[in-house]
């Protein structure tokens, strides 16, 4: 609904993967991140649990001026998936998937700005955040700093 509401404010080059019908491959993540000026992740659990750490740190994404991570939503199914995945990771690797570390890694790969949630939340709360972000960034043309200030 939010994407439909702001559809006219998007550029013709808006592309991505929507829905839960398919899981993006690492190549699709790479293509989306390297070819975008802004990247939005709206999903379950930690963003970094969906991409390979070694792959991300080797990327170069200077065209990506803004990364918005509306993640850290947990369901019974996502919790089971992440638990099964984390068993095979070191404590250091899991630590690098936390919000602050993820923002630092994205910045080091070239992202201009990162807006991210810091603690677990609900889908509804992230939908409200997305509405505020789109309203201020797209409709009113506010800067990312002004928009984040409004979100606080």
UniProtKB/TrEMBL annotation:
Listed GO biological process terms: axoneme assembly; cilium movement involved in cell motility
InterPro entries, sorted: CFAP46
Record protein name field: CFA46 protein
Gene name for this UniProt entry: Cfap46
């Amino acid at each position: 609904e939010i994407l439909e509401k702001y559809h006219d404010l998007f550029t013709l080059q808006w592309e991505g993967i929507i829905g839960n019908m398919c899981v993006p491959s690492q190549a699709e993540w790479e293509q989306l991140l390297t070819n975008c000026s802004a990247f939005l992740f709206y999903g379950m659990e930690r963003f970094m649990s969906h991409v390979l750490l070694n792959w991300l740190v080797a990327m170069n994404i200077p065209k990506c001026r803004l990364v918005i991570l509306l993640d850290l939503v947990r369901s019974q199914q996502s919790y089971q998936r992440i638990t099964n995945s984390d068993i095979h990771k070191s404590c250091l690797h899991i630590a690098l998937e936390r919000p602050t570390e993820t923002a630092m890694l994205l910045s080091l790969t070239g992202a201009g700005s990162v807006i991210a949630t810091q603690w677990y939340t609900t889908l509804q709360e992230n939908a409200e955040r997305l509405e505020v972000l789109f309203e201020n960034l797209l409709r009113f043309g506010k800067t990312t700093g002004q928009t984040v200030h409004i979100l606080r």
